[in-house]
Design goal:
Blueprint lengths: L1 H36 L25 H19 L4 H10 L5 H54 L1
Helix pairs in contact: 1-4, 2-4, 3-4
Length: 155
């Protein structure tokens, strides 16, 4: 009876693991495809902070690259806004009666920059989740193989 339970459990884990592995790889390809469609590329080395120099001229196709590009946008937004956030600029603009066109443009810049950063960080998070799913799928499959092997030894 224990052998039957082990084979059933092992088989279930093998199937679940294979599905997770497949879905994780499909998800990873989807993230890569969507990032490639956006045609985002890092600028040349001279326009990058030293911490991002290794990405100079590369297209953004992976979650790690999306995260790095979001950091670049963050640097540019901070420089443009003097380190102020969208909320701080919006508050200042509203307190001034919404009359300052310069603050309105700065608010738009901060909003667009933070929105782009959020989208790229979302791609990075999706990339990380696909890695987790692939890893768990491989783990499930390994445990499934072990259960089936144990069942066969008991028979």
């Amino acid at each position: 009876m224990i052998s039957v339970v082990l084979v059933f459990t092992g088989g279930t884990l093998l199937v679940a693991g294979a599905l997770m592995l497949t879905q994780g790889l499909i998800g990873r390809r989807s993230v890569t495809r969507e990032l490639a469609r956006q045609r985002i590329s890092f600028p040349v080395r001279d326009a990058l902070p030293i911490s991002l120099a290794r990405y100079a001229g590369l297209p953004v196709h992976t979650g790690s690259q999306a995260r790095a590009f979001s950091e670049l946008i963050g640097v540019h937004v901070a420089k443009a806004t003097g380190g102020r956030t969208y909320a701080e600029i919006a508050d200042e603009w509203q307190a001034g009666g919404r009359a300052d066109d310069g603050l309105a443009r700065l608010r738009d810049t901060a909003f667009m920059g933070q929105s782009l950063r959020g989208a790229l960080l979302g791609a990075y998070q999706a990339w990380q989740v696909t890695l987790l799913v692939v890893g768990l799928g491989a783990l499930f499959m390994a445990i499934g193989v072990a259960f089936v092997a144990l069942a066969l030894q008991m028979s």
